[in-house]
Amino acid sequence: MSTNSPSLIWLFLDFLRLGATAFGGPSMVAYIRKMVIEEKGWMEAGEFNTGAAFCQVIPGATAMQMAAYVGLYLRGTAGAAASFIGFGLPAFLLMSGFAAVYAQTGNLPAVVAAFSGLHAIVVAIIANAAWSFAKTTIKDWQSAGIALAAAALFWANISPLLVIILAAAAGWLMLAPPDNNKLPVRRSTPIPFETKTLLGILALVCIALAWMFFLMPDLFRLAILMMKVDLMAFGGGFASVPVMYHDVVEVNQWMAGPTFMNGIVLGQATPGPIVITATFVGYLLQGIGGALVATISIFLPSFVLVVALAPFFNRFSTSPLFHKIIRGVLCSFVGLLISVSLRFAVQVEWDALHGLLFSGALLALLRKVDILWIVVFGAALSIWLVR
Fold first, then answer.
1. Residue 316 burial (C-beta neighbours within 10 Å; 0-12, 13-18, 19+)
2. Using CB atoms within 10 A of its CB, is residue 78 exposed (0-12), middle (13-18) or buried (19+)?
3. CA–CA distance, 98 with 109 (Å, rounded to integer)
4. The pTM is what?
5. What is the pLDDT of residue 234?
6. Is the dihedral of CA 285, 291, 293, 296 positive or negative?
7. Is residue 116 part of a domain?
8. Is the pLDDT confidence value at 115 over 70?
9. Which residues, other chains included, contact 203 with Cβ-Cβ below 8 Å and sequence gap of 6+?
10. Which residues, including other chains, have CB under 8 Å from residue 282's CB and lie 6 or more apart?
11. Does 345 fall in a domain?
12. What pLDDT score was predicted for residue 208?
């Protein structure tokens, strides 16, 4: 436990507030960094970077995992659960509401149109996060080259796991070792491996799955599918969308392709990672119970991986070789943010209004305006302009 640790309730509330504005998927790592290091002083930059690199190399939604890592660092497994649930809860509640309305009306054209301007603001949020993360990561032409190469590979839909491995190898071969004086001091109380807690979590999961298998087989199949999707999501939540689409639409034929795509649109118009589309799928299939099972299942495997593997990953943080590899991985994360920025940008129907919203949001972010007010004002302005 960190000596500067918040209580579990404040950890939950701080991440709940941040989760309410968590637009842009992996770009939110930069905003978690700002809160944790600059505003709260809970972690040193080197410790945070170790966590960011760790969350980049395991499957799952990167920003959600980073929230869990911070909580684990500060307050153990209970802290990981508090920050993880707090960060994801706003997205679950909002997407459940959208899905409920969608199930009654058949579509949400008014809502999608009203929040169309928000898409331009999301691009600004991601672009600012890419710039913020790049300033602390890109130090020379070698690191810039790794980031740009990673962006190109992500854009070309190369396997995220392969991109990360290549970036790590490039960091090892190309980047200069850090100054020994700048290496973090190994924590006197490293992140503990909580064997009993972890075994308890796994036991509860097995019991829940067994109960669904015998009594609610449809929920069991939904849970297993979403867990599989999460374990295959190397490179963040965006990597999971094609897998989810393939299993939900093409293999199981649980819903039509256009319906699933509507869920993705709503996922981009709500805070949280894009895999919150799982909540939409679960609700349409099995109501609020399906939404809850799908949401837990799409996040639980990567949460367990953070709790189980972070204690071992942290022990390498004082090795110069390890830091060269980590810098390479962090450069790949900058490349991921660049790629995500471009992917979001090409989905926006750009016109004068969207250009104005993008420019205004980016300027406000660069001037350190709180992201909460940018999102609230931008959403209100979008609703008023498209009436």
1. middle
2. middle
3. 12
4. 0.74
5. 65
6. positive
7. no
8. no
9. none
10. 222, 226, 290, 291, 292, 293, 294, 295
11. no
12. 95
User: What confidence tier does 106 reach under pLDDT thresholds 50, 70, 90?
Assistant: low
Domain region containing 5 = 1-108+142-179+195-340
More confident residue, 25 or 214: 214
Residue 121 lies in a domain: no
**pLDDT (tens digit, 9 = 90+) per residue, 329-385?**
888 888 888 887 887 788 778 888 889 889 998 999 888 787 667 777 877 777 676
Q: Is the pLDDT of residue 185 over 70?
A: no
33 near 307, Cβ under 8 Å?
no
- Is residue 186 pLDDT above 60, yes or no? no
Q: Residues 211-240: what's their mean pLDDT? A: 86
Contact 183, 159 (CB under 8 A): no
Which pLDDT belongs to residue 80?
Answer: 95
Overall domain count for the chain = 1
Alpha-carbon distances of 309 from 54, 56, 135, 228, 303, rounded to whole Å: 9, 13, 28, 19, 10
Q: Give the number of other CB atoms < 10 A from CB of residue 103.
A: 12
Q: Confirm whether 201 is domain-assigned.
A: yes
Report how far residue 53's alpha carbon sits from residue 328's, in angstroms, rounded to the nearest whole number: 9
Q: Residues 91, 309: contact at Cβ < 8 Å?
A: no
Contact 83, 71 (CB under 8 A): yes
**Residues near 268 by beta carbon (within 8 Å), at least 6 away in sequence:** 119, 122, 274, 344, 347
Q: Give the Å distances, CA to CA, from 86 to 56, 92, 274.
A: 21, 10, 17
Considering only CA atoms, give the Rg of the chain: 20
